[in-house]
Amino acid sequence: MTPFEMNNQTDVTEFIFLGFSNHPKLQGLFFLIFLIIYLTTLLGNMLIITATKISLALHTPMYYFLSNLSFLDVCYTSTTIPVMPVNFFRKKKTISYEGCFSQTFFLVTCTGTGCVLLVAMAYDHYVVICHPLQYPVLMSVKVCVLCGLVNSVIHTVLAATLTLCGPNQISHFLCDIPLLLELSCSDTSLNESVLHVVKAIIDLSPCLFTGVSYVLIIYAILRIPSTQGRNKAFSTCVSHLTVVVVFYGTANFNYDRTNMGYNLDIGILVFVLFCVVTFMLNPIIYSLGNKEAKGPLRKLAGKGGFSNKIGN
Q1: 4 lies in a domain?
Q2: What residue intervals traverse the membrane (predicted)?
Q3: Please, is 231 exposed, middle or buried when counting C-beta atoms within 10 Å of its C-beta (0-12, 13-18, 19+)?
């Protein structure tokens, strides 16, 4: 073992991002694209949150969960994107040791919370359609946040105990647990085992639970006698189902990349779809798929709509 490898992990003071470094001439274009995506994500999700707060028609558990999902989208993109525009204009794209682990903590927290929150929303739809008399739902957002925090604390603490070897280069544009494990020269078997266990608990289990919920929901919808009733019931679920498919599809593809071999550009593209584009599309998907939300959102987005609402 070299002297560098024998040093404690705290000797690593910064990490170097390799993401987007293969295209130096496109840095300005990347900056513009990510800035537009970030501002669009903030605007769309803030409109959802504001409309849910001030519109009495949206004071239901479903939109309560939706507003929390929008808040989570804002937190997620604010954790991942703001570091990138600065690095686009730096020859050496770096992040401090503390900054890397802070980003990892919030990234894992948002991901875990999002998984559980989507399950809560699936359960909400199931109760509304299959057992309306048992409404409101039993699961709370506090449970979702607690699951995300516990998951994040475990992963971050375990990662912080690793001995990191050189080079301190991360093949991405942000910090994440699997990427940090690749830099370790100490035993990562415990970290990998915890990753698999958490994947089963917070990833696969929610995915299966959501799938079972929608099988029961579809079965209940098909038993509704009127076509209008079936269409109305289905319209309340299609937005959430779309978000679930996009979220879990891109997340699983991204985190399983080590099993398929890794290409930097492909890995970056998949993660951009997961942590950037997905959260930008969520407000669009929900606003287009829910008639109840269209009215308040139009008023907020229209000229003078927001000020008129506040004035009333």
Answers
A1: no
A2: 29-51, 63-84, 104-123, 135-154, 200-221, 233-251, 266-289
A3: exposed
Instruction: Answer for the pair 41, 74: CB distance below 8 angstroms, yes or no.
Output: yes
Contacts of 123 (CB under 8 A, 6+ apart): 137, 138, 139, 209, 213
Residue 186, in any domain of the structure: yes
The answer to the question of residue 7 being in a domain is no
Residue 210 vs residues 29, 90, 116: alpha-carbon distances, Å: 38, 43, 10
d(CA 154, CA 109): 10
pLDDT beneath 70, residues of the chain:
1-11, 132-141, 166, 236, 249-267, 270, 273-275, 287-312
Alpha-carbon distance of 71 to 282, in angstroms, equals 11
Instruction: Give how many domains the chain has, as a whole number.
Output: 1
For the chain, the first-to-last Cα distance in angstroms comes to 70
**Torsion angle, CA of 250/251/255/256, rounded to 10 degrees?**
-50
DSSP 257: G
- 3: in domain: no
Helices (H), the chain: 3-6, 27-54, 61-80, 83-88, 97-130, 141-160, 177-181, 189-198, 205-222, 227-255, 264-272, 278-289, 291-301, 305-311
Residue 199, SS3 per DSSP = helix
Quote the domain boundaries for residue 275.
Answer: 13-311
Question: Phi and psi for 145 in degrees, rounded to 5?
Answer: -65, -40
What tens digit of pLDDT does each residue of 72-105 get? 888 888 888 887 777 777 778 888 888 889 998 9
